[in-house]
Amino acid sequence: MSLPARRFPVLRTLSCKSFHTSASTKALGALAQPKAEQISKNWKGTSATGGSTKNFIGGEFVESKSAEWIDVHDPSTQTVLTRVPQTTDSEFKEAVDAASQAFKTWSRTSVLTRQRFVFELQHLLRQNADDIAHSIVLEQGKTLADAHGDLLRGLQVAETAAAVTSTLLGDKIEVSKDMDTYVRKVPLGVCASIAPFNFPAMIPLWTIPMAAVTGNTLILKPSERDPGAAMIIAELCQKAGLPPGVLNVVHGGVPTVNAICDDPAIRAISFVGGDKAGKHIYDRGTQNGKRVQANMGAKNHAILMPDANKNLAINSIIGAAFGAAGQRCMAISVAVIVGDTSVWLPTLIERAQALQVNGGFEKGADIGPLISPFAKDRVTSLIASAEKDGGKILLDGRNVKTPEKYPYGNFVGPTIIQGGTNMQCYQQEIFGPALVVLQADTLDDAIEIINNNKYGNGAAIFTQSGATARRFETEVNAGQLGINVPIPVPLPMFAWSGNKGSVLGDIGFYGKSGINFYTQNKTTTSLWKAEDAVGNRASVNMPTHH
Ligand code: NAD
After folding, report:
1. Which distant-in-sequence residues (6+ apart) come within 8 Å of 377 by Cβ?
2. How confident is the prediction for the chain on average, in pLDDT?
3. 325 in helix, strand or coil?
4. Distance 104 CA to ligand 1 centre (A)
5. Calpha distance 26→273 (Å, rounded)
6. Is the N end or the C end of the chain the one with fewer CB atoms within 10 Å?
7. How many CB atoms lie within 10 A of CB 351?
8. How far apart are CA 526 and CA 180, in angstroms?
9. Which residues lie below 8 Å from residue 130, measured CB to CB, with a gap of 6+?
10. Residue 221 beta carbon below 6 angstroms from any ligand 1 atom
11. Cβ contact 132:35 at 8 Å
């Protein structure tokens, strides 16, 4: 069976009379409408009521002159919230020029000034958390509580970035009498950040504070599917005192990405998204001499041992498999049951079935819609492929009852598929609310399954045995491990540490790695002879460092 290839949202030209599609005649839900109006009223860079998303260049929110625009739909109702420009070549050039100019002064501001910016930013992010979360629910579809979590995990990066006065400390040693060598971590220059749709606040916040606090300037390209949170964050950066040009936001799809990869003024690219784009950006960026970090797709396994705390394990797996409708790169998408599956499956199915599928603003909603009708088609096709591959669909989310208020939503319910590693739905990242259940006879077999998988973002084990947990963490080859913890993404004092096919590039996001990614070492060796202070004889001997 062949699945449809990943498609870009339809670009519309302004001359196209059908710009307002039939979808745009659909209305937002009653809970969403006032929030959408509030966002359009409060923020310069975005709209949630059918207006447009602006470029942010040199400290100004400017309407693009583009002839090509991309509609952003509410995934619960298909209402058009905003249209995003395919930023033009000359606008892109202006953004890079603004960032290059700003670098000259921003890179020379004191580290305390840059630290003060992140202090102020974290405060403003908290103060404006509701608007950011509302924008995420509207454009991305996740539930309100989950949208706040999206922001919080980014905000924690800003908070950790405030430690820059310690993390930038360099090494120094007297290598010879009166001769010192010391290292300074200096900024790279203009950097770029390309974000995916699934964490519209968190991912821009993985890069903005880290790039700025280390003295770089940044071109951000949010996902063209949900740029609203990034635009609010950009305005908050300005309010937090970030000078014009230090952060610029441009929009669009492949043309903007390629312009980023090719522009000689851009020194480094941070990418988070799918495998195809990640590989393309890594290859093209590094061929052009840039530093590139690329976080990509995943297939995260959780091993269920017979001795596990059943209640904790089942609730953890359900949350991690179906939360955010499975659209998380650290979602648990595979449960590997060691031993007797009948101990686990009935409760797993029963609790998954109890999750409420609904619009993200609705009280009690557990699972919102997928990002687009295309994503829904792709996920349901992958579920359908399971039976052809010999799998058994134990819980079928394709038949989920569509919430009455949201007949046009891209909803798929929790799905549980039992089968083997040959299934297409095991081999591909589903990125939907679908959990594949495999069975293994022993812990070793379960670990082997994980190690044979091409991805390596994360893995978890549920057990009451320290020895079993120890064996798991020693033997398993994945980068972020959880022991009785389902989504083991470390807090940002640590760096992102996904491995194997889930990453390209050697330097991880945030933490100490983030500082290293956004700086280069400059060493100076200086000689200030103490005896010269009183004007003594010159030495003609070869320096030997003794
Ligand atoms: P995506 O690859 O479609 O898009 C990501 C970005 O790349 C967007 O800004 C998009 O405009 C651009 N892009 C898309 N296709 C491109 C192409 N062919 N050439 C150049 N640029 C292109 O990803 P998505 O659907 O927005 O996000 C979901 C994916 O992101 C999943 O695979 C998920 O696992 C991954 N993800 C990974 C992490 C991580 O840290 N490992 C975190 C979040 C999401």
Report:
1. 4
2. 94
3. helix
4. 31
5. 30
6. C
7. 17
8. 5
9. none
10. yes
11. no
